[in-house]
Amino acid sequence: MKRQYFPTTTTFTLLWLAAILAPIVTLPPISGDENDQYTKCGVLFNCGSLTGIDYPFSSRDRPEECGHPGLKLACENNTATILINNLKYRVLDLDQKAQILKIARSDLSQNPCTEELKNTTLDWGLFEYASSYMNLTFLYGCPSLGVMVPYQFDCPVKGIAERSGYVELGVGAPLSGFCHVSIVVPVSYPSLVNFTDLVQLEELVAKGFEVRYKVDSGACRECRNSRGRCGWDVTGKRFACFCSDQSAAESKTCAATVVGAAGSYSSRAPTATVAPSASARIVRWKLTKLRKP
C-alpha cells in the first residue's frame, strides 16, 4: 500500500517561503485617460455634413479648453454655426488641412430682411479672406424712388416708416445717402459675374464666402506626434498640449511617448524583471522531495 502524504507544519512553512521568494514580475501600469482634459478633448464635433472636427474648434461637447476661444462651433437643426464679432454664421464647409471655413450670415440665408443691421466684419487677428470677394451694400429704410431700380426689396425696419430697400455693388453706393441704414456683406467674386436679379443675388449671399483662420498648426502637430491632444490654456490664453498621464505638458509635446519617422519610443524607464533567487530554487527542490511517496 502506498503511503498517503499529509502536509506538515514544515511543509506549510516551506510553501510560505516559496511564495515570498518566488519570481516577481512587475508589470507597467495600464495607461488610461486619467486626465479629464485629455479625455474631453478626444471628443470630435459632428453636425450635418461636418464630421470629425477637433482642435482648434470647441463646442458644447468639446469644452473651452479644447479649442481657440474665437472658434466655438454649435449645431442647430443639423447645421453647424459659429459666432464671429457677435454675428451668427452658418458653416457651409470646413477644410481643417487648409484651415479654411466657408461661412454665410444666418440672418440673410432666406431673404434680405434682417434685424441684425450690422456690417459683416471679421476678427482680423484670427481671420483673413481666403479667396477673391466683393462687397454688396444692403440699403434699408429708403424712400420709394418711383422708378425701377435693380435689386429692390421691401422690408420693415423698426422705428422707420420707409420700407423700401436696395442692393448695390461695392461700398459707398450712390443711394446710401437717401436711406436710413446700410450694411456691407461680402460674397464670392467668381459667383458674382452671372447674377441678374434679386433672387439670384439672395442665393449668392446664401452660398457664403471663404475665410482662413490663422492658428499655428505646427504646435498641434508636434503635440499629436507625441500622443498628446491639442487644447487651449484658458488662463494663459495660449496653446496647450494635454497628455494622458498629466494635466498638461509644459512644452508643446508629451514626454511619455514621442512618435518619429522610425516609429515610437517611450521615455519611461523599462520595468525590471526579478529572476528567481538561489534560495527560492532550494525551497522548490525540497518541496519536490517532500511530495514524493
Write the topology of this structure.
Blueprint: H1 9-21, H2 36-40, E1 45-47, E2 50-53, E3 73-76, E4 79-84, E5 87-95, E6 100-105, E7 127-129, E8 133-142, E9 152-154, E10 164-169, E11 181-188, H3 198-207, E12 209-213, H4 217-225, E13 229-233, E14 238-243, E15 246-249, E16 257-260, E17 263-266, H5 278-291
Antiparallel strand pairs: 1-2, 3-4, 4-5, 5-6, 6-12, 7-12, 8-10, 8-11, 9-10, 13-14, 14-15, 16-17
List the defining traits of the structure above.
293 residues, alpha+beta, 6-stranded antiparallel sheet, 17 strands, elongated
Largest sheet: 6 strands, antiparallel
Based on secondary structure, the structural category is alpha+beta
Integer average pLDDT: 78
Q: Percent helix among the residues? A: 10-25%
Number of strands: 17
Note the total helix count: 5
Q: Report the oligomer.
A: single chain
Q: Name the beta content range.
A: 25-35%
* Alpha carbon gyration radius: 34 Å
Ends apart, CA distance between termini:
11 Å
Low-confidence stretches: 11-34, 257-280
What general outline do the C-alpha atoms trace? Answer: elongated
Walk across the major sheet and give the strand order: 3-4-5-6-12-7
